[in-house]
Amino acid sequence: MSSDLERVKDEILAAGNLPRHVAVIMDGNGRWAQKRGLPRIEGHRAGIKSVRDIVEATGELGVEMLTLYAFSTENWNRPRFEVSVLMKLLLQTINSEINELDEKNVKVTAIGRLHDLPDGTRKALVKAMDRTTENSGLILNLALSYSGRSEIIDAIKKLGQALQKGTFDIDAINEAQFQNFLYTTRFPDPDLLIRTSGELRLSNFMLWQMAYTEIWVTDVLWPDFRRQHLYQALKDYQARERRFGLVFSKDENDTIEQ
Ligand code: IPE
Ligand code: IPE
Ligand code: MG
C-alpha cells in the first residue's frame, strides 16, 4: 500500500468513530464493460478484484460487518446468459476465495431467498458459511436473491406462523421484536451505505434497516472502486453528525422559555 494510503488509513483509525456496519450497492459493472467495448459479464468479472480489496480493507480497519448487495430479486429478470454467468462467477469466487477468507478470520453470512440460487452455488455458499461460522473477524454478509420488500414479506409470513401456532402474542409486536423475523436478525443496522456508479436510489436494498443509515454515493464504477474510495467514504462519514431525529446543536435561544 502507498504511504499516502497508509496515512489516510491511520487518520481514519485515529478518528475512532468507525461505522460498525458498512453496506455497499456494487453498481456499474455493465457500464464499465460497455465503456471498453466488452460484454457486460467482463464487468462482473472485473468487479471481483474490487470485492477482494474492499473486504481486505474493511477487515484491516476493524469494521465489524460488510454487507455486499451482489444480486437482487429483480436481477433474475436480466437476460438468461448474464444471470447464469453471474451464478457461475459467484460459485467460482466462493471456492477460490474461501481459504484466504478463512485464514483472515472472516465469517461469511448471507441474506436473501437463498433457495432461489442454483444448487451448486447455494451448496458452495452454505459450505463457506459453515466453515467460517466460528470466525470472529469481519462478518462478510452477501445479499443474494435479496430485496428489502421480499425480506419484509418473508418476515411477516414467519410472524404470522408464530401467531397462528401461539408461540408469539400480537401485543408483543414492536420494532425490536419484528426485527427478529428479518434475515438480519442478529446484525446491527448499516451505519453507512456506499453506492457506486452515481445512481441516487436504494434499489430495494435493506429498506427496514436503512431507516437512519448515512448514504455516500460516488460516480466511480464498481470495477474501478478500491480502498482509496472506501477511505473517502469513511472520512466523509466520520465528519457527519448523526441526529436520529434529535436536536444536538447548542443554541442558547432554545433554553429561553417562550
Ligand atoms: C452491478 O452492476 C452488478 C449487479 C447488479 C449484479 P450492473 O450489472 O447493474 O451494471 P450497470 O448498472 O448495468 O452498469
Ligand atoms: C442494484 O443494482 C442491485 C445490485 C447491485 C446487486 P441494479 O443495477 O440492479 O439497480 P438499478 O436497476 O440501477 O436500480
Ligand atoms: Mg446496475
Description:
Helix content is 45%, strand content 13%. With 258 residues, it is an alpha/beta fold. The protein has one domain (3-257): Undecaprenyl pyrophosphate synthetase (3-Layer(aba) Sandwich). The chain has a six-stranded parallel beta sheet with strand order 3-4-2-1-5-6, sandwiched between helices. It is globular and about 65 Å long. 32% of the residues are buried. Residues 25-27, 69-72, 75, 199, 201, 203 line the site of one 3-methylbut-3-enyl trihydrogen diphosphate.
Morphology: globular
CATH superfamily: Decaprenyl diphosphate synthase-like
| CATH topology type | Undecaprenyl pyrophosphate synthetase
The level of helicity is 40-55%
CATH architecture: 3-Layer(aba) Sandwich
Unreliable sequence segments: none
Q: Radius of gyration over alpha carbons?
A: 20 Å
Query: Which ions and ligands are bound to the chains?
Result: 3-methylbut-3-enyl trihydrogen diphosphate, magnesium ion
Number of strands: 6
Question: What's the domain count?
Answer: 1
